[in-house]
Amino acid sequence: MLTGFLGSGKSTLLSRLVADPRFAATAIIVNEWGDAPIDHALLLEAKGDIVVLAGGCICCRVAGDVVRTLRELHFRRAEGSIANFERVVIETTGLADPAPLLATLVEMPVVAARYALSGVVATVDACHGAATLDRHPEAVRQVAMADRLVVTKTDLAAPDAVAALEERLAGINPGAPRYRAARGAIDAATLLDAGLYRGTVARPDATGWLNAGAYRRMGAPRPRHDPAIAAFTWNLAEPRAWDDVETALETLLDLLGNRILRLKGLVSIEGEPGPRAVHAVRHTLYPSVRLAAWPDGDRSTRIVVIGQDLEEAAAARIFDSFLAQPPPGPTPWPTPRPRT
Asked: Which residues pair with residue 318 across a beta bridge?
C-alpha cells in the first residue's frame, strides 16, 4: 500500500517506478484517472477500467471499491485476459486513513485468500510535511503505520528542514527506515521489499520487518513530538502456548483495538522451532505465519504496538495477565505431617 498526504509525491514516485523492469509484474490500483500517476505516453491499451503500461505492468482505477477491484484483477489474471502480475500496489487518496482499508483487506475472504499484505509505504513532503503533520491527524496516522517512509522533494527543501522533519518522523515511527527521494527517484526494491511477505523465492526478512530494537520498551518516556502516538515493544523471554498468545492478542484488540493503529510481533511458541509472526490492524488480527527458524539469536517474544491515545499500562496489564506469569503446572501433593 502506498499512502501519503495530498501533494506528498505519491504520483511522481509511481510514475518513476513503472519504468523500472523490476516493477513490470505489478498491478497498480489508483482512485480516478484524473489522479492517475501514469504518464499518458506510457498507456498502450485500454480494457475498460484497466490499461496496459509500456513497462509491462497494468493499471486500473477503483471500480466501486478496492475489494471488488482486487477480485476482478484476480479473475482476469486467471482467465488470461490481462497480463500476469505478481504484486499489487494500492495508491490511497491523500486524505485516507490506511487502517480501515488494511482491516477490510484481511477481513474479506475473497481478498485474504488470494493476497497477502507485503507492506505500507508512506510519502512525506519535505517542504510542507511538518505543517501537514501539525494540522492533519490522518497524516500522522499514515506515518505511524508505515513500514517505509519516503521523504520527497528533498531537492526543494532546506537541509535543516529535511533533518528536522526526519527527526520528527523517527519520533512517530522509529521502526520504519527513512529514504529521501528527489523527483520520485528511488530504488524500486526499497519499496517492493517493505514487509514480511516477499513471494515464494526470497526468504522473509522477519527482523527487518519487525525492527523491534528501534522501539522503546513499554513504560519508557515518550518522544516530545506527537505525544498522542505511542510506539513501544512488549517482551517476554519464555515461550508460551499459542492458545494463550492468541487469547491475549484477541483480548487486547477487543478492548483497545480502536486505539491501536498497528501491531506486529515475533512470538515464541512452546514446541515450535521457529517464531510465529503476528500482525494486527485496529480490531483485526491477521492469521499468524510460522517461520522455519528464528532470524537472529534472540528467541524471545517481541511485540510492537503502535497506538493513538493508547494507555500503555492497560495494554501491559492484558499481556501480563495472559502471558507474563509462568504457565500453571500440576498441583503438588501436600507434604504429609510427621507423626507424633
From this structure: none
